[in-house]
Protein backbone atom coordinates (compact mmCIF):
# COMPACT_ATOMS: atom_id res chain seq x y z
CA UNK A 1 0.00 0.00 0.00
CA UNK A 2 1.30 3.51 -0.79
CA UNK A 3 3.30 5.37 1.83
CA UNK A 4 3.21 9.17 1.55
CA UNK A 5 5.79 10.95 3.67
CA UNK A 6 5.76 14.67 4.45
CA UNK A 7 8.91 16.44 5.55
CA UNK A 8 10.35 19.93 5.77
CA UNK A 9 13.36 21.35 7.62
CA UNK A 10 11.35 24.52 8.27
CA UNK A 11 8.48 24.59 10.74
CA UNK A 12 5.18 26.30 10.15
CA UNK A 13 4.91 25.57 6.42
CA UNK A 14 1.77 23.45 6.67
CA UNK A 15 3.32 19.98 6.79
CA UNK A 16 1.02 18.51 9.43
CA UNK A 17 -2.04 20.25 7.99
CA UNK A 18 -1.26 18.76 4.59
CA UNK A 19 -0.93 15.28 6.11
CA UNK A 20 -4.26 15.61 7.90
CA UNK A 21 -6.11 16.94 4.86
CA UNK A 22 -4.84 14.06 2.75
CA UNK A 23 -5.81 11.51 5.39
CA UNK A 24 -9.32 12.84 5.90
CA UNK A 25 -10.00 13.20 2.19
CA UNK A 26 -8.86 9.64 1.50
CA UNK A 27 -10.85 8.34 4.46
CA UNK A 28 -13.94 10.05 3.03
CA UNK A 29 -13.56 7.70 0.04
CA UNK A 30 -13.83 4.73 2.43
CA UNK A 31 -10.09 4.03 2.42
CA UNK A 32 -8.42 2.80 5.60
CA UNK A 33 -5.71 5.33 6.44
CA UNK A 34 -2.97 5.12 9.06
CA UNK A 35 -1.25 8.35 10.06
CA UNK A 36 2.21 7.82 11.50
CA UNK A 37 2.80 10.79 13.78
CA UNK A 38 6.58 11.09 13.85
CA UNK A 39 6.64 14.75 14.89
CA UNK A 40 7.97 14.99 18.48
CA UNK A 41 5.07 17.30 19.37
CA UNK A 42 2.53 14.70 18.17
CA UNK A 43 0.07 17.20 16.65
CA UNK A 44 -1.88 14.49 14.83
CA UNK A 45 -2.34 12.52 18.03
CA UNK A 46 -3.76 15.66 19.63
CA UNK A 47 -6.19 16.02 16.72
CA UNK A 48 -7.19 12.37 17.09
CA UNK A 49 -8.00 12.94 20.77
CA UNK A 50 -10.68 15.47 19.77
CA UNK A 51 -14.19 14.46 18.75
CA UNK A 52 -14.97 13.46 15.21
CA UNK A 53 -12.05 11.30 14.09
CA UNK A 54 -13.32 8.94 11.37
CA UNK A 55 -13.24 5.28 12.37
CA UNK A 56 -11.13 4.41 9.32
CA UNK A 57 -8.30 6.73 10.35
CA UNK A 58 -5.78 5.42 12.86
CA UNK A 59 -2.98 7.52 14.34
CA UNK A 60 0.21 5.77 15.43
CA UNK A 61 2.92 7.63 17.36
CA UNK A 62 6.53 6.92 16.43
CA UNK A 63 9.62 8.54 17.97
CA UNK A 64 12.29 5.86 17.48
CA UNK A 65 14.41 6.08 14.33
CA UNK A 66 15.36 2.42 14.66
CA UNK A 67 11.76 1.15 14.60
CA UNK A 68 10.07 3.53 12.18
CA UNK A 69 10.62 1.20 9.23
CA UNK A 70 8.90 -1.62 11.12
CA UNK A 71 6.09 0.74 12.13
CA UNK A 72 5.49 1.82 8.53
CA UNK A 73 5.80 -1.72 7.18
CA UNK A 74 3.25 -3.03 9.67
CA UNK A 75 0.91 -0.11 8.96
CA UNK A 76 0.91 -0.68 5.22
CA UNK A 77 -0.28 -4.25 5.79
CA UNK A 78 -3.42 -2.93 7.47
CA UNK A 79 -4.26 0.22 5.53
CA UNK A 80 -4.93 1.37 2.01
CA UNK A 81 -2.76 4.44 2.60
CA UNK A 82 -0.04 5.25 5.12
CA UNK A 83 0.79 8.93 5.65
CA UNK A 84 3.89 9.82 7.65
CA UNK A 85 4.28 13.24 9.27
CA UNK A 86 7.99 13.62 9.98
CA UNK A 87 9.86 16.03 12.18
CA UNK A 88 11.32 19.10 10.56
CA UNK A 89 15.04 18.50 10.98
CA UNK A 90 17.10 15.95 9.09
CA UNK A 91 17.61 12.77 11.09
CA UNK A 92 18.00 9.01 10.85
CA UNK A 93 14.27 8.72 11.34
CA UNK A 94 13.65 10.86 8.25
CA UNK A 95 16.07 8.80 6.18
CA UNK A 96 14.59 5.50 7.30
CA UNK A 97 11.03 6.64 6.58
CA UNK A 98 12.01 7.77 3.08
CA UNK A 99 13.58 4.40 2.35
CA UNK A 100 10.17 2.73 2.57
CA UNK A 101 8.04 5.53 1.09
CA UNK A 102 6.36 5.73 -2.30
CA UNK A 103 6.08 9.52 -2.39
CA UNK A 104 7.77 12.36 -0.51
CA UNK A 105 5.95 15.68 -0.29
CA UNK A 106 7.72 18.83 0.84
CA UNK A 107 5.37 21.71 1.73
CA UNK A 108 6.73 25.21 1.34
CA UNK A 109 5.58 28.81 1.28
CA UNK A 110 6.48 31.56 -1.11
CA UNK A 111 9.63 33.05 0.36
CA UNK A 112 13.35 32.78 -0.35
CA UNK A 113 13.87 31.30 3.13
CA UNK A 114 11.29 28.59 2.48
CA UNK A 115 12.84 27.89 -0.89
CA UNK A 116 16.31 27.49 0.61
CA UNK A 117 15.06 25.19 3.37
CA UNK A 118 13.03 23.13 0.89
CA UNK A 119 16.15 22.74 -1.25
CA UNK A 120 17.81 20.98 1.69
CA UNK A 121 14.89 18.60 1.96
CA UNK A 122 14.94 17.80 -1.76
CA UNK A 123 18.67 17.15 -1.55
CA UNK A 124 18.02 14.70 1.28
CA UNK A 125 15.26 12.96 -0.70
CA UNK A 126 17.43 12.62 -3.79
CA UNK A 127 20.29 11.22 -1.71
CA UNK A 128 18.06 8.59 -0.13
CA UNK A 129 16.61 7.73 -3.52
CA UNK A 130 20.05 6.59 -4.69
CA UNK A 131 20.04 3.85 -2.07
CA UNK A 132 16.66 2.39 -3.04
CA UNK A 133 15.85 -0.31 -5.56
CA UNK A 134 13.29 2.03 -7.12
CA UNK A 135 13.63 5.84 -7.33
CA UNK A 136 11.53 7.76 -4.83
CA UNK A 137 8.85 10.02 -6.28
CA UNK A 138 8.76 13.50 -4.77
CA UNK A 139 7.09 16.87 -5.24
CA UNK A 140 6.80 20.30 -3.73
CA UNK A 141 3.52 21.40 -2.15
CA UNK A 142 2.61 25.08 -2.13
CA UNK A 143 0.91 25.61 1.22
CA UNK A 144 -0.54 28.60 3.04
CA UNK A 145 -0.71 30.57 -0.20
CA UNK A 146 -3.16 33.17 -1.44
CA UNK A 147 -6.32 31.45 -2.63
CA UNK A 148 -6.12 33.02 -6.09
CA UNK A 149 -3.05 32.49 -8.25
CA UNK A 150 -3.53 36.03 -9.54
CA UNK A 151 -2.63 37.30 -6.06
CA UNK A 152 0.58 35.30 -5.78
CA UNK A 153 3.61 37.56 -5.28
CA UNK A 154 6.30 37.70 -7.92
CA UNK A 155 8.85 35.94 -5.70
CA UNK A 156 6.55 32.91 -5.34
CA UNK A 157 6.19 32.66 -9.10
CA UNK A 158 9.96 32.88 -9.44
CA UNK A 159 10.39 30.10 -6.89
CA UNK A 160 7.98 27.86 -8.79
CA UNK A 161 9.83 28.53 -12.03
CA UNK A 162 13.11 27.69 -10.29
CA UNK A 163 11.74 24.40 -8.98
CA UNK A 164 10.51 23.42 -12.42
CA UNK A 165 13.84 24.32 -14.00
CA UNK A 166 15.55 22.10 -11.42
CA UNK A 167 13.31 19.18 -12.39
CA UNK A 168 11.33 19.27 -9.15
CA UNK A 169 7.61 18.58 -9.68
CA UNK A 170 5.12 20.91 -8.03
CA UNK A 171 1.65 19.66 -7.07
CA UNK A 172 -0.71 21.59 -9.34
CA UNK A 173 -3.25 22.47 -6.65
CA UNK A 174 -1.87 24.78 -3.97
CA UNK A 175 -3.32 24.60 -0.47
CA UNK A 176 -4.49 28.08 0.42
CA UNK A 177 -4.17 29.63 3.87
CA UNK A 178 -7.68 28.78 5.03
CA UNK A 179 -9.34 29.11 8.40
CA UNK A 180 -11.18 25.83 7.80
CA UNK A 181 -7.87 23.96 7.60
CA UNK A 182 -6.65 25.45 10.86
CA UNK A 183 -10.01 24.82 12.52
CA UNK A 184 -9.56 21.05 12.28
CA UNK A 185 -6.98 21.22 15.07
CA UNK A 186 -9.40 23.16 17.27
CA UNK A 187 -12.73 21.45 16.56
CA UNK A 188 -11.49 18.02 15.50
CA UNK A 189 -13.15 15.92 12.84
CA UNK A 190 -12.88 16.62 9.13
CA UNK A 191 -13.82 19.32 6.65
CA UNK A 192 -17.02 17.36 6.04
CA UNK A 193 -18.03 17.57 9.70
CA UNK A 194 -17.15 21.23 10.23
CA UNK A 195 -20.13 23.57 10.22
CA UNK A 196 -20.50 26.87 8.41
CA UNK A 197 -21.18 28.46 11.78
CA UNK A 198 -17.71 27.37 12.91
CA UNK A 199 -15.70 28.74 9.99
CA UNK A 200 -16.18 30.69 6.78
CA UNK A 201 -15.64 29.69 3.14
CA UNK A 202 -16.12 26.04 4.05
CA UNK A 203 -17.29 24.88 0.61
CA UNK A 204 -14.23 26.46 -1.01
CA UNK A 205 -11.93 24.81 1.51
CA UNK A 206 -13.50 21.41 0.85
CA UNK A 207 -13.05 21.84 -2.90
CA UNK A 208 -9.43 22.90 -2.42
CA UNK A 209 -8.58 19.83 -0.31
CA UNK A 210 -10.40 17.48 -2.69
CA UNK A 211 -8.57 18.83 -5.76
CA UNK A 212 -5.24 18.59 -3.97
CA UNK A 213 -5.90 14.96 -3.05
CA UNK A 214 -6.74 14.08 -6.66
CA UNK A 215 -3.39 15.60 -7.74
CA UNK A 216 -1.51 13.52 -5.18
CA UNK A 217 -3.26 10.31 -6.25
CA UNK A 218 -2.48 11.10 -9.88
CA UNK A 219 1.20 11.47 -9.02
CA UNK A 220 1.04 8.14 -7.21
CA UNK A 221 -0.76 6.58 -10.18
CA UNK A 222 -3.58 5.60 -7.84
CA UNK A 223 -7.23 5.80 -8.84
CA UNK A 224 -8.53 9.26 -8.05
CA UNK A 225 -11.77 9.52 -6.05
CA UNK A 226 -14.87 10.57 -7.92
UniProtKB/TrEMBL annotation:
Gene3D superfamilies assigned to the protein according to its UniProt record, in alphabetical order: P-loop containing nucleotide triphosphate hydrolases
Residue stretches making up the SRP54-type proteins GTP-binding domain: 2-162
Annotated InterPro entries: DNA_Partitioning_ATPase, P-loop_NTPase, SRP54_GTPase_dom, VirC1
Taxonomy, superkingdom: Bacteria
Keyword GTP-binding tagged: yes
Keywords of this entry: GTP-binding, Nucleotide-binding
Keyword Transcription annotated: no
PANTHER family, A to Z: COBYRINIC ACID AC-DIAMIDE SYNTHASE (PTHR13696:SF99), P-LOOP CONTAINING NUCLEOSIDE TRIPHOSPHATE HYDROLASE (PTHR13696)
Name of the protein: AAA family ATPase
Organism from which the protein derives: Sphingomonas citri
Amino acid sequence: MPVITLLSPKGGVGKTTTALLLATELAAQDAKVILVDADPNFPLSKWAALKGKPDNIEVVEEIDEETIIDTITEARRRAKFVIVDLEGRASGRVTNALLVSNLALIPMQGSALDSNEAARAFKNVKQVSKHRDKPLKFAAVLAKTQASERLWPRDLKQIIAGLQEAGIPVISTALADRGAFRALFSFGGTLATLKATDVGSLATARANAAAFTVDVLTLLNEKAPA
